């Protein structure tokens, strides 16, 4: 879809919101004028903010980016509320419950604003707050007694960039380290920017601590900003980068294969980085349970197609939908939205994301740090 078509569509939807909230209710001046003007300015903020993201950061450009990102998410919430209010009003009018069209229009506008404004504030506080620790116990067949109770802590979709920085990342690292993990898994979409711009912001990753290792795989967003360069930078921070490869960890005589693949779509940008579960697990020891790190849940389909056994896949990418109502559209691209599920015979844990992409808002799915405890099957 071209930029012109996208802006035209967004402009039309903004006009729809302005009409329903400020024109139809026939508010007295100055609200009847200020309301539509405000909606128009918020629409303009979207292309302006995106353009400013390519300029040298200054207090002005950062402020414009923040406004654009917040409105990008708030727009979806407002639009959903206005559509819902219109549908409800049609039902009420059709049933003959309401006869005063002006009173209905004003009541509808007040109801939309009363619901959406607090929702946007709540979504902002949730997105910027501390990640929720989700604790899940996963039975694994063949897991040796020495690894019973193995604690894997997963973070994903961190998206260090325009509105998330190194101070925020350090708080996440402190939360992870406080859980005393045996393994830390970082499952992609670490950044929204290139290495040169964000090198200092991702430094706290070097402070992650885990008894058996800290492992990282790329997400699709790394490949928008130089995937191979980011893999090298993360390796420089002394994380183990798994690019279609595996390692075997051991404790008290029990072993676990930890494998990782590049992002599902990486091969479209860097053919040499095509995601290959079969290559990642080639030569892995037989009879040893297998943990696979793969950014997108649908990698499980590739795993099943390749016929390579995997006991548990850790993924992210979906953000759990991030902002209502977008979680209902995730299923158009991914087989699962969040949580533990089985996809084509492969058990997959899909992480809701520790950070956020774009809008600093989370309405519904809270940010997550997953603590997965692997236990032997009785």
UniProtKB/TrEMBL annotation:
Coiled coil: none annotated. Residues 150-320 form the Calcineurin-like phosphoesterase domain. Keywords: Hydrolase, Membrane, Metal-binding, Transmembrane, Transmembrane helix. The keyword ATP-binding does not apply. The keyword Ion transport does not apply. It comes from the Bacteria. The chain crosses the membrane at residues 31-51, 63-85, 105-125. This is Metallophosphoesterase.
